[in-house]
Amino acid sequence: MIYSYVPAKNKLARKRYIKSFAAMYVLAAFLSLWKLSEDTKYAFPAFALFFAITMLLLTTLRKPRFFAVMDEWLIYKGRINLKEAEIYPDFENLAVKIKWKKEKVLYFNSESDMKNFLHEVEKVKYS
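Predicted structure:
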């Protein structure tokens, strides 16, 4: 089954993306202040840089992400064997941590999607 989520609708995913974009904002602020201290003709490019980063953030938050469960594999940024993976659900944040070689976090828009996913994983693990 194919699942999807939009990072803007999940508070944990939204927080993760905003933190990663904060570094870009800091870098842009540093570059802008450095260039503006030399000459004010760089005001428009500095504004354009902040505008571009903001648009990229909004686009990233609105883009839906997809993952699928096929047989005993979870397809999400690679393949994860569900029979060997350790799964830790977090119902409060609508997220599932999966540990198999690396730790990955799956986010959900609704609790019903998360319950369906966990039910499907349970069937795979114990079959």
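Summary: The beta strands are 2-5, 65-70, 73-75, 79-81, 86-90, 95-100, 102-107.
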